[in-house]
Every structure is written in C-alpha cells, then in structure tokens.
Predict the 3D structure of the following.
Amino acid sequence: MDDAISRLTRAIRDADSTTALTGAGVSTASGIPDFRGEDGIWNAAFDPADFRIERFLSDPAGFWKDRLELHEAMFPGDIEPNPAHEALATMELRGQLDAVITQNTDGLHQEAGSRELFELHGNARRVVCMDCGGKTMSEPVRKRLRDGECPPRCDCDGLLKPDVVLFGESMPEAILAESQRRARNSDVFLSVGSSLAVEPAASLPKAAARNAFLVVCNLDSTPHDGRADVVFHEDVTELLPALAARL
Ligand code: CNA
C-alpha cells in the first residue's frame, strides 16, 4: 500500500484539480450501514421497491411508515463524521482537493467541513413539499410521524417528501451536469467507498479516466477497478487519513 500511496501523493501534488466521489462506504464507520456491502440495508429487511417514487405517489402513508423504519435503520442514534470525512475536509481546506461529489444523503461531509460539495442523491436531513417546493428539516417531521401524523403535510397542505432522490426519480440536473464537468476536468479523481453499481454516479469515474489519474478505494471490487491507475481494497477510514498525512 505504501508504494501506491506514494504514487497517489505525487499525482495530487502535481494536479491542478482533484475531485473525490464518495459512497456509503465512507460513512459505515459512523455507524451507517451501506446498501450493498456485507451488512448492507438491502440484505436486511428492506426492499428497494418500497422506496420508489411511484410508491410514494400512490401510497404516501405506507411509504412514510416504511421510510421511518428505513431511516431509523440507516441512521441509528447520533451520527458523527469519521476520519474519512475529516481527511477529505482537511484536504479541501489545504487546497489539495477541489470538490466532493457524494451519493450519500447523511449530511456528514458538510458537518465535517467540506464546502465544495455536490449531493447527487439529496439530503435526508431535509424534507421537501411536493406543492410549494419549500424545504425544512426532517427531524421534526419524523417526530410528527411518530406521533401519528401520516403522511406528513406542509403548512400549504402539500405532501412532504424526503429531500432525497427516490428510485425512479431523476437526479437534480444542474448538480449532475456540474459533477460530470468536474469529473471530465479533473487531473486526479478519487472514488472512495462506493460499489459504483448505481448510475449515473458510476459513469463519473469512466468519464474521469479519459484524462485523470483514477483511484478506486473500496473494500469490495468494483466494475471500474480495471481502468483505475491505483486500486486500494482498503478501509477508507485508514486510507484517507494516511493520504492526508502524507500530502
Ligand atoms: P453501496 O452500493 O452500498 O456500496 C458501498 C460500498 O462501500 C460497498 O461496496 C462496500 O464494500 C464499501 N465499503 C463499506 N465500508 C467501507 C469502508 N469502511 N471502506 C471502504 N469501503 C467500504 O453504496 P454506494 O454509495 O456505492 O451506492 C449508492 C447508493 C447508496 C446511494 O443511493 C446512496 O444514497 C445510498 N446510501 C447512502 C448512505 C449514506 O448516506 N450514508 C447509506 C446507505 C446507502
């Protein structure tokens, strides 16, 4: 691993632009299970089909009941950023990382101090009104749900939806376009803690690989390992702090 870190360190020092793409594996050390890893949410009692936009629109009360259970399984208790989030925030602060593109909805990059942040799948700490588009924090809404208000509604009486991209929904176009632009223009592109199984995020490393030094760090292998310049089958909470310390 030492030789590979040295190559990566040199590449980042020589780069004009370095971008990181993160997935659920960056947050497992904070106690948030991933979707497809060994103890992933989809291997447990949840079915992705229950969390589609069509289900939300046809059965909002049933959707919200299941969503509350999913939320409690995904975000048990108080969650905090871990050394992987902190290393990325430190690298950005020092000017060694230009942006983080994340598939995560947990808000932990922001909490760790990442500023140039693109949340491809939204943020589960917020809800959005389907009528007026207003966004508010989700915790008070979950309390209202637990108290029996189901489905929860906005002051304008519109249905509230978690401010995340549900299966079957399209991604926010501006965020996706900017993420693709950054991937194409990066000199170094780090894909960390993602199975790279979900499109269109999975296509970002492919776009980046045409010009960039591509690095994949994930416990399991990914479909892009073959095109990466360096692959680490390592824990991101070890690799990223080690990298930040070497830079
Ligand atoms: P995924 O498909 O669940 O893959 C995560 C990958 O991370 C797996 O291949 C694991 O092997 C790997 N992994 C787990 N822990 C570590 C670790 N400590 N170090 C290195 N690798 C590790 O998740 P993706 O992000 O690739 O898929 C995108 C989905 C997952 C998006 O829709 C997310 O919204 C969704 N998700 C987000 C969260 C979150 O916000 N924290 C949690 C669970 C799922």
Q: What stands out?
A: The chain is about 35% helix and 15% strand. The two ends are 15 Å apart (CA to CA).
